[in-house]
Amino acid sequence: LDYQHVQVPFEITLWIMLASLAKIGFHLYNKLPSVVPESCLLIFVGLIMGGIIYGLNDRSPPVMDSDIFFLYLLPPIVLDAGYFMPSRPFFENIGTILLYAVVGTIWNVFGIGFSLYGICQVKAFRLQDVSLLHNLLFGSLIAAVDPVAVLAVFEEIHVNEKLHILVFGESLLNDAVTVVLYKLFRSFCEMPTIKSVDVFAGVGKFFVVGLGGVLVGLSFGFTAAFTTRFTKDIRVIEPLFVFLYSYLSYLTAEMFHLSGIVAIISCAMGMKRYVEANISLKSHTTVKYFMKMWSSVSDTLIFIFLGVSTIGENHEWNWPYICFTVIFCLIWRALGVLVLTFFVNRFHVNTITSKDQFIIAYGGLRGAICFSLVFLLPDFRRKKLFIAATTVVILFTVFIQGMTIRPLVDLLAVKRKRESAPTVGEQIHIRFLDHLLAGIEDISGHWGQYYWKDKLEYFNSKYLQKILLREYDQPKSSIVLLYEKLERKHAIELAQAGQLGHGPAHPSFLCSAFLCSSSDRTVITDQKLEDTPNPDVLDNMQEILARNLYRIRRTGPAYNRHTLPGDSEPTEQAKEILILRHKSL
Amino acid sequence: LDYQHVQVPFEITLWIMLASLAKIGFHLYNKLPSVVPESCLLIFVGLIMGGIIYGLNDRSPPVMDSDIFFLYLLPPIVLDAGYFMPSRPFFENIGTILLYAVVGTIWNVFGIGFSLYGICQVKAFRLQDVSLLHNLLFGSLIAAVDPVAVLAVFEEIHVNEKLHILVFGESLLNDAVTVVLYKLFRSFCEMPTIKSVDVFAGVGKFFVVGLGGVLVGLSFGFTAAFTTRFTKDIRVIEPLFVFLYSYLSYLTAEMFHLSGIVAIISCAMGMKRYVEANISLKSHTTVKYFMKMWSSVSDTLIFIFLGVSTIGENHEWNWPYICFTVIFCLIWRALGVLVLTFFVNRFHVNTITSKDQFIIAYGGLRGAICFSLVFLLPDFRRKKLFIAATTVVILFTVFIQGMTIRPLVDLLAVKRKRESAPTVGEQIHIRFLDHLLAGIEDISGHWGQYYWKDKLEYFNSKYLQKILLREYDQPKSSIVLLYEKLERKHAIELAQAGQLGHGPAHPSFLCSAFLCSSSDRTVITDQKLEDTPNPDVLDNMQEILARNLYRIRRTGPAYNRHTLPGDSEPTEQAKEILILRHKSL
């Protein structure tokens, strides 16, 4: 037995396997996930596993490594979130989202930090050694809403799109603020004196970190789109580029201390439309499927590890500090949302209702990012207290808030997400209104969102598409693309229902399948019986035979390692059928 | 700049990116890959990169780590090979393949080992310090044909299926022999005296290693199939199980010193038919695509690393030893193939022609497995000589043999692979003959391959399918499955060619698309004009409207994180359409 040799991959595979099996287990028993969010169940599994490890080994189970979390577990989830981000509601609410993410997070950091410092001044609590800077540092890591936890809960409760994007967008974009403030306070903690220059540098750094992340992401995204222009002969590795470039954007951003989350999201959103147009349908299915799979596994692993890491002896318990942390987290978030929304509502026609505000405040879940950041703190006396407080806040938000948010949404009758996708008619109207509003804004000289959107679209079709798309000659309008997609779907449905008529096989079945009325059918059959040697009918039969012979002649391409069976061939064949048809007509 | 932090994932991603871009590069310039095999080009790229690294750093570039090769790069390729293995030719020729793999490899090991020992006895060559055991050890690592190199070359030359499976099957199954002999001789080298017991133990070990691998693989394969029975509600993680279980089978086999390659191949072949039936169509596309992608990247990386590792100062040059190694490798393989084929041909009606024998002997390419094994040798004086000899043999076989085998195949007019897949008619006939022969064998009491195949099929349908398949009630015959697949393909083609008629839209287009003869069409139109208020026609229109309204009513399911849009819905919808149709009829 040579376990040492295979230990690393073996254990990784086993953890992933455990996560996947846990997921299957929950879904087997249908009622459970509808009451308790999956994230809670997974943390619970983690707690049990941690308990078992603790019981068997008699020492604390291994803690989730912050490096593993930030380098391997977080990127797939954020990539998935960015790639499937509904871009329209996101950009429509980008101002509000940024306000919540930037001002709201800063508000929370300082609010929590200063009020906890106030608590530390009470002598009875024996916390006088926790300085203001340490409290602010703790505030900077505990204030940020966690995208992983938010996703896990909000995707199960189906609130309306705007509410979802406000909470989720905030949780993603506050990464830039968190990174800056966390690093700023951490370096302040190690400095002997703090000059005012450093504070201003910190403010400037925020723009560098955020905008730098966007720039890094977009440049990798466009490079990815450009690369997929040249993959026509080697379809099999197309999906790889989507993953490689997004991951590189994340790593590069992290390397330069920029916001990796912002980078990978810009990368995914920037490349999506071009990559989708360049790669084959099967590659695209693979990309989507693998992204979902990967993020789902990462997310499962994160919650299990979170549970496992909770067990152990790295906590220092101090009732007042921990309780007040939870209370301040709730209060400052609620206040922040109220104040910010007041300003937002003054400038918007489409206001955020008070129910929505409550859900935004209540949906501020904390998760694995706080947890990883608290372990990354430099060692000092009260680190274990911070770890304990963070763990309690995470468990409180995920369990108490996560489990009660669904009943609350039901109780308040918060506007839900519409169940069906918009119809083609609606989409056409939306687009029509967009053009109309862009025109009105242009005439009135108001540079609003429609004006900029129109300009961006112009720039895109004039320059970007020419560089990034393979087949630029006549870009298909999205209506045509949608039509093609629906046709394809419809065709598959027909084939699965056995309704796709192969002309020659059963003329009567064919007619019934393709909706010739029954009376017409009788006429056809009658006429066929009457004049069988009709030259038209004979021609037609010849055509049928020719086409079917064609189909038999080319049932499959030769096997080749770098292509999948039936990779590029269908379109070609369909084209040739079209040519044959034109000839015969 | 914090490069240290992201170094490991960053460099891995960059290497994979380089490999992928190199692949795109070759395919952009179309003429190159048709003359030079891709493997040669990649080694060449590696040589250049190694030269650059050597020139810049002034020390040997890093050598491909044997652990990385065996744990991470080899499994994807073997998994791909096993999963897409054409099972019929493989099992039809399993006897011949095993003979080549086991007896042939042993023959080569001892042939090369003893004759090189003979060369070492010549005083002029100054090689007297290389013992017989060291020569046999070297023989055991240099004798084995490499599956990666064979795949890379043979997939481009398209020889007939039997020839391909003989060479490729041998290269896969000889792993068990290589593992046993290599470890045996290595432990002998470290023992002071060798008892005859040890030799017999080695022979016994061969069966343990080979059959153990098969057992480990099959048990993981069946577990994988069993697991996918329960993934109906969580389709997104289905592909994961295919990869996880196969990888676990490989690691487990390696852990117990069994043949990992044999294990992963049995796992893939064992699970394939059940997994395919259990998982959704999209999951299956993803599995296939990702397997191809992964193996393609692994294979590229292996050849590039092979090139990079060649450059450097870890070689000891000895002309006679190296030249004689190449010559003996060629001679002993040719002799082995001739002798073994002589016996094979005596027992088979379908003989292996002399042209095929030549290609089998000439196709014995060596590759990265030898290379990794030689670096795993314990340190002794002549290790660098062995490394040099191995490198030369690999470069010789990949470059000289790999580049000349295509012209030789053309010159000898070796029977090629048929370009098209077998037609349905052929498949039915083949199956019919199988049953017939099984019956004849049963009556005559001869336990041949058809008898066993029939028994296995019986066992499979009676027990295995009931345990491993989700929907067992009425297993679809493969003819029905093929029909469904063709229907689906046809439907997509029709949709892409715009020939799929939506009944109500254009009655005339509909008819022309679905081959109603032109004369019939006129009659329909005439009749419609004549009696518009015909109740039948009205009924029919109602039906059309009802069905189309149905389609509009349900354009898309609500977004959910764990499902992909349109995941399970089409079949359901198609079913409902069917019910509606039955009602209306």
Automatic annotation (TrEMBL), chains A, B:
Its main location: membrane. Keywords: Antiport, Cell membrane, Glycoprotein, Ion transport, Membrane, Phosphoprotein, Sodium, Sodium transport, Transmembrane, Transmembrane helix, Transport. One of its GO terms (molecular function) is potassium:proton antiporter activity. It is a multi-pass membrane protein. It is found in: Basolateral cell membrane. PANTHER family: SODIUM/HYDROGEN EXCHANGER, SODIUM_HYDROGEN EXCHANGER. NCBIfam families: b_cpa1 (TIGR00840). This is Sodium/hydrogen exchanger. It comes from Pomatorhinus ruficollis (streak-breasted scimitar babbler). The gene is Slc9a2_1.
